[in-house]
């Protein structure tokens, strides 16, 4: 039995490797996941939520360069390296865009950056306040590869950190949907009768409610926030899983290996979990990949409507909401960049779902 299982697994893996788009999507998802996990290490702005605002350089084009004055924040909070790497730097330096500066003895004089040909305010700082008086430490040239948003924040950093929301919503929502869907579908399919009728009634009622409307209702009931969206999306995606599991179990429970398990005196829980579910995992895996993509789209829609991840948390959907009017103002990249990121990630999960469907199809 184990040899057969191993051979079937190896055959499915070989078929998956032959699918160019499936393999490409897999490595693309791995790369985006790596970027999301270590976003604060890679991002130019490693402050929490990449929330360094510079209104003087708002809405600048990709590749914009400016001299930046870095000053210690003066806020001392205890933060270990683990927290700094995965949750951002709580003691990030203060950044001030400047157009020119001069140093006279121990005094630094600088002119703040001003766009549209205006002259910024001139200010002075006593360098004796800081232990290191080398101006090269305080003043560096900074490049914004993706430009800046309407608040003057680094768009690349916001994109990288916003990828965490999309990945998190996918994993958590799919996990919730699998737990509920597999339990409800297994009970309905295995026992049948009145139990099946009651569960199918619940499924049909939930299925009849528009997904986005149901998510909005649950989100408003639980409140706006990060975790509330995860729970809301997960509670609306279990229906498809339950229908698939129910149909597969209705077919599988009449198989000979289930009859043999009953004859050996195994209880229903063991028969479902140890014998039936392992043999119907292929369609569940495929629908999970599709649900992952759907969860990303739903979260983006909720953030666009303002009931998803709340500011200053970075979210691709919220970034589109903040900048969609810039499409007609000559700066469409502010909305197109996060939109393209959503499209790429969703397409990757859809393609990997199709590749898994083909690889796990025993008929082919």
UniProtKB/TrEMBL annotation:
Where does the UniProt annotation locate this protein? Answer: Cell membrane
Q: Return the Pfam families for the record.
A: BPD_transp_1, OppC_N
Know the name of this protein? Answer: ABC transporter permease
Topological type in the membrane: Multi-pass membrane protein
Question: Gene3D superfamilies given for it?
Answer: MetI-like
Which residue ranges traverse the bilayer?
20-43, 165-191, 198-220, 226-245, 276-298, 333-356
- Residue stretches making up the ABC transmembrane type-1 domain: 163-353
- Would I find Isomerase among this entry's keywords? no
Where does the source fall among the domains of life?
Answer: Bacteria
Among InterPro entries, the record links this protein to: BP-dependent_transpt_permease (IPR050366), MetI-like (IPR000515), MetI-like_sf (IPR035906), OppC_N (IPR025966)
Q: Provide this UniProt record's keywords sorted from A to Z.
A: Cell membrane, Membrane, Transmembrane, Transmembrane helix, Transport
Family the entry assigns: Belongs to the binding-protein-dependent transport system permease family.
UniProt-listed PANTHER family: D,D-DIPEPTIDE TRANSPORT SYSTEM PERMEASE PROTEIN DDPC-RELATED (PTHR43386:SF1), OLIGOPEPTIDE TRANSPORT SYSTEM PERMEASE PROTEIN APPC (PTHR43386)
Q: Which residues form a coiled coil?
A: none
Organism encoding this protein: Psychroserpens algicola
